[in-house]
Predict the structure.
Amino acid sequence: MTDPGAFTEDAFLGGQLRLRQPKSGHRAGHDAMLLAAATPARSGDRVVDLGAGVGAAGLAVAKRVAPIELVLVEIDAALAGFARDNAASNAIAADVIVLDVTSTADAFAAAGLAPDSVDVVLMNPPFNDPTRHRASPDRGRETAHVATVATLESWIHAARRILKSGGVLTLIWRADGLAEVLTTLARGFGSLAILPVHGDAATPAIRVLIRAIKGGRAPTQILAALMLKDESGVPNKQVREILTGKGNLPLAMA
């Protein structure tokens, strides 16, 4: 459980979004903003951020697309408390639910997330391979970053269950785990669009952003890669625009 006592207040989207988050443990950063910039929400959509943490990705989507019906789902009650406060301090309406993403359909329904009731799901599941990831002494950080064998399957199953037919799932995952993502998404999802994310042009991809449609049948697309840094080692123009809330990724244009 996260200690809510020590926290920082950090600016995102060029200061448009200010978030309190714990000093230690899992902290929101670039992955959350990239995920938000890849999420194709539209005004009026019901949007659910699974494993929301302090609410960074979901609140960033709400800043870009208004109004939406935003739901932030987080297992850690202290982080959920931060998410609730962050929504209020940024004047964003959000329903914050303390719930394990791997819970049963009945538990989701009792929390207001019935099957086939959501337009968009976004998620940044724990994705580090436990066989190659050195365990963190911080339990919150470990829970947020390290995947078990069933993590990906259970999170995607939860998204599939609550999404309407034709609903959209957007997720971020480590690039070397792409094969397992594609295998898991094959059950119930299609029309995939994949965006590789590289640290720079000289190194392999470190992340993949994926948009999938529940029941989609269109061919899979692999989009032009996103380079986080240019040749001089600074964030490139597209990344700077995303981080300052002035740009989106092609995945958001479904």
About this structure: The CA atoms of residues 124 and 205 lie 17 Å apart. The chain has a mean pLDDT of 91.
